[in-house]
Amino acid sequence: MFYTTLHVTETILAFALIVLLVVLLKKKNIVSADDIKSYTRLMTTAIMPAVIFLQLSTNPVNGRQFILVLIMFLAGIASMIVTWFIGKLMRLKRETLGMLIISSTFGSSSLIGYPLIEFAFPGNVVAMSDAILISELGVGVPIFTLCPLVASYYGSGNSGVFSMWKTLLEYLKSPLFLSVVAGIVFSQFQVIVKNPLLAPMWEALRMIQGTLTVLACLILGLQLKFGSVRKILPLFIVSSIIQIGVQPFFTSFGADLVHAPLLDKQVLILIAAMPSAVLGTVFATQYECDGEAASEMVFLNIMVSLIGIPLVYYAMFN
Q: Where do the domains of the chain lie, and which CATH numbers do they carry?
């Protein structure tokens, strides 16, 4: 177990070094923040769907994995309730409370989670398959449904529930969700999957998968902005405790409750401990729910995760 914890720590630090390299390249004007939208579109419409389809097609989904999805979903809901309760005790403004809720629950499971799982458990197709299902169904769907609903309710915008349903429909038509469906369906026909004629296609998808980590680091490095954190420090402390402490505890409890195998529990906890999702900033801005503070929270959560995730992992499994 010590060596697995050490490998997770090394993975986080390696990820951080690449991100810092991108920050340096941005400062030298070798790469530009103006390209974030293009890189993000490439990631969400091509790279991630290809990886999702590859992993799910070649690894048939089973009932055990859907239990993991349910555990992740319920842990996120429980974390939302805890955050709401703490926010009420702090007497936060409506906009700030909404921002805190969406910034402290469902995290960057795709952008950071996939590369982390890939390198923390090298060559382990079960771990990657679990991570994809947990991420897309247990984290992705709530981000595109619950987070806009919370932001629209607490924000000063008037987008309402109709906009939330519109966002959900857009997600259901997105390459990310379609690749999940296609991968699950395709996985049921292993005779076709293992046909030698399709070998070049799977190899091409594996080559695409190799770009996942670098592109994720590039996007994060270009997004990072360094500024004063004094104003949101109390909110950040609450958010980081919920995201890197409370939510992993809930998933650990759920995994123990259903007697999940060790690997499933490890993947659940790592995905649950991911820092704030970048989409939280998008929704907070869209619904006038303190978007500026949300962007700062995302940055701070990413930074603290460099130390927090290895510590949580070590505490849970040692």
A: 2-225+232-317 (1.20.1530.20)
